[in-house]
Amino acid sequence: MNAVLLIARREFYAYLRSPLGASIIAAALVIDGLWFHLQGMSRPMLSAEVLQEFFNGASGTTMGAAIVLSMRLLAEERQTNTFTLLNTAPVRDVEIVLGKFLSAFSVIAIMTALTLYMPLLILVNGKVSWGQVGVGYLGLLLLGSAAISIGLFASALARSQVIAAVIGAAVLVVMLLLWLVARAVEPPLNTFIARLALHHENFRPFMQGILELRGVVYYLAVTYFFLLAATKTLEARRWR
Amino acid sequence: MIEIQDLYKYYGERRVVGPLSAKIEKGEIVGLLGLNGAGKTTTLRVLACDLLPTSGTVRVGGFDVVEQPHEVRGKVGYLPDRPPLYDDMTVHEYLGYAARLRRVRPNDVEKRVSDVEGMTELGDVRRQLVGTLSHGFRQRLGIAQAIVHRPDFVVLDEPIGGLDPIQIVEMRGLVRGLRGEHTVVVSSHILHEISETCDRIFVIQNGEILWSGREADLSTQMEQGMRIRVTGRVAGVVEDAARDRLSALLIEVPGVRAVEPRDATESGDGVASVEVVAESDVRDALCRALVAGDTAVLEVSRLRDLETTFRALLEGSSS
Questions:
Q1: Fewer CB atoms inside 10 A, N or C side of chain A?
Q2: With an 8 Å Cβ cutoff, are B52 and A238 in contact?
């Protein structure tokens, strides 16, 4: 079996065996459900607006879950010394990083799939555009992938899971708040900075069911950048 | 073969290893002996490609650890001082995972895992979760993961750490069993352990090789003489009188510097023990002197005070 899949499979089973994976999924579903009820079903709204609110809430839980899931990926291995097994096996650092990424992404994908009952509930009392549902879910997966890669990079940097979570959350919050920075900056730099924000301008079109190539490329680029940074961090650690 | 040429490793400004040069032949079991912080673990980590050297050349099986780390890792099995074990896997799953990571062909994985479970006597716990294993079994599993892919080189960092005496004997047997098929590098700070297991010893201090050779050479070189325990029986006297009689006979033997009284190593009327400090191996002369003095010879054995020897070596280098 390919080393990436081998590592991904082991990590995925580790999520299933420990209470961590199930707890995160359960917590995210509870928060998503409450958000859906309070924001989407407590006042008269169009179905498309309810769906938009649902994706808005789900984007928050996806980012939070991604950081918590990814904080352990490398930091825990280093804490328990199991990283030596990977580090001394004929496996490239990029394969380690990709395997870890895939495992966390699988959990996020399952978690996201389990929220599908909420758009189906809208269908009961309203009209849902399947295009909006599909694009919204694609956005959630892309956002999740970017957030996991940020968390994985933090996990490569830190020795402890808690510090990894703090670093990951800090990077994520800074990237989220770039739209605020953009407001304080003169044109044309403000447009550029706003485009870099993790959620605001890049995620809104997905919520509305508008598939923009720019948004897809942005999330893929963020994912690639942080996965590359995590790989380079692992490579650099061998010299320390 | 492992070739190390002018290896240096720095952590920041601090030199941990170097200059260190050594050559280890195929099939040898070599021991790295040194106190804690001497640089043993760092040297082993470089051999296992867990860490890259600051400078110098290290070639394992003809491959350079900096230029061809992937090839080196495929040829080396490494047991760090804390075995890298996943507590949430069973022993069998874990070994299968380790084998696949080390590129064992899928069709061979089951057989290799079964073989290594048999070799390390893990068969009875193969379905048990790693997290529930005793310390001894965890060490065995650590060795099993290091040899599951039948590497040419096995690097073991303090494999007997924390084991009880019975487990130590078993582990010693396990390491000796690797001779021939694998080239083994094992580290320890216990000289006795290294001398029991290894063909050759490298004594390391401050990241440098202080001495290398066979254990017997080390003892001969450092002791500059020999200590011999003698137990004899003098009929019809009490232990103290027997000890005096032994001392009087043995001190007259040419080459004997001193005779020191010791507690008798066995019980019985007229049985006494002494320790002889001699310039060379005078055991045969001691036997003859005792027999000539009408004393029964119960024991004449050379004492190997390896720890004292090791300490003398280290003190000699620091002075």
A1: C
A2: yes
Task: Please tell me which of the candidates B86, B89, B101 has its beta carbon nearest to residue A91.
Answer: B101
DSSP tag of A38: I
The structure tokens listed for B188 are 């320890």
Which residue in the set A80, A89, A239 is minimally distant from B101, CB to CB?
A: A89
DSSP readout, A145-204?
A: HHHHHHHHHHHHH-SSHHHHHHHHHHHHHHHHTHHHHHHTS-TTHHHHHHHH-SSHHHHH
Number of structural domains, chain A? Answer: 1
Residue B222 has pLDDT above 60, yes or no: no
- For chain B, domains (ranges, CATH) are 2-213 (3.40.50.300), 224-307 (3.30.70.100)
Mean pLDDT for the stretch of residues A16-35: 92
Range of the domain at A132: 3-237
Q: What is the pLDDT of residues B141-169, one digit of tens each?
A: 999 999 999 999 999 999 887 778 888 88
User: Which one of A2, A85, A237 would you mutate to disrupt binding with B, by most B Cβ within 10 Å of its Cβ?
Assistant: A85
**Both tokens assigned to B180:** 């021939």
Amino acid letter, B213: G
B102 close to A6: Cβ distance less than 8 angstroms: no
B30 pLDDT more than 80:
yes
Residue A157 — very low, low, confident or very high, per pLDDT cuts 50/70/90?
Answer: very high
Mean pLDDT of chain B: 89
Give contacts of A85 with chain B, Cβ < 8 Å: 84, 98, 101, 145
With b meaning 16 or more CB within 10 Å and e meaning fewer, what string describes A203-214? bbbbbbbebeee
Query: How much of chain B, in percent, has pLDDT values that exceed 70?
Result: 93
Could you tell me if A85 and B98 are in contact, meaning their C-beta atoms sit under 8 angstroms apart?
yes
Q: Which residue has the higher pLDDT, B191 or B109?
A: B109
Instruction: Please give the pLDDT value at position B306.
Output: 61
ipTM: 0.90
Contact A84 B51 (CB under 8 A): no
Spatial contact of B35 and B314, defined as CB atoms under 8 Å apart: yes
Selecting from B51, B74, B84 the residue whose C-beta is nearest the C-beta of A81 gives B84
Chain B CB contacts of A17 under 8 Å are: 88
- Predicted confidence (pLDDT) at residue B223 exceeds the cutoff of 60: no
Angle between helices A47-79 and A117-125 (to 10 degrees): 170
- The pairing of beta strand B76-79 with beta strand B153-157: parallel
Q: Within chain B, how many helices (H) and strands (E) appear?
A: 11, 14
Average pLDDT for B131-138: 93
CA gap A194, A185 in Å, rounded = 10
C-alpha to C-alpha distances, B40 to B90, B202, B277, B288, nearest whole angstrom: 31, 10, 34, 46
A96: chain B residues, CB-CB within 8 Å: none
- Note whether B84 contacts A14, CB cutoff 8 Å: no
Sort out which chain A residues have CB atoms less than 8 A from B71's CB and list them: 90
Nearest residue to A14 via CA among B188, B148, B87, B257: B87
Q: What is the pLDDT, as a whole number, of residue B9?
A: 95
